[in-house]
Design a protein that fits this description.
Helix content: 40-55%
Number of domains: 1
Largest sheet: 3 strands, mixed
CATH class: Alpha Beta
Structural class: alpha+beta
CATH architecture: 2-Layer Sandwich
Number of helices: 6
Order of helices and strands: HHHEEHHEH
Length: 140
């Protein structure tokens, strides 16, 4: 056996006086951040699809009147905020909130089935009025 010590990685190829970041382009320095954002966006889309399918296939007529407007990541991806909109009946607002709270475990299990992750994120549902989404001005 040789008495030379084996070195691993790229640190052995660089002289000690030269900093590591000297010849790395700026785009490559932030590549990890872009990849994390891409994965977060991908997860939000998967969760949006899973919850949309779960709402359509629900046995509750209240939940079938709801649809997903968007999904936002909070606290990394440990908590996802699901923005849900009602199709019409504004007088059923409180019933819709209660139905979403009762079905939170069902939605989380559907999300777990749809994504491939070690931990399933917690879901926070917010019921958004459909009037805020459309601001149309009518001409008379």
């Amino acid at each position: 056996m040789s008495s030379r010590k084996k070195t691993r990685g790229f640190a052995a190829l660089r002289p000690e006086s030269e900093p590591e970041w000297l010849d790395v382009p700026e785009v490559e320095m932030f590549r990890g951040l872009q990849k994390a954002d891409t994965k977060t966006i991908q997860l939000c889309r998967q969760v949006e699809e899973a919850i949309s399918c779960a709402l359509v296939c629900s046995t509750s007529s209240i939940l079938r009147d709801l649809y997903v407007q968007g999904v936002e990541a909070l606290r990394g991806v440990a908590l996802l905020r699901v923005l849900v909109t009602m199709e019409g009946n504004a007088h059923r607002y409180q019933e819709s909130i209660e139905a979403l709270a009762r079905a939170k475990g069902y939605f989380r299990s559907e999300v777990a089935r749809a994504i491939t992750r070690k931990r399933v994120p917690s879901l926070d549902f917010i019921l958004v009025p459909s009037d805020l989404g459309s601001t149309e001005v009518q001409d008379e």
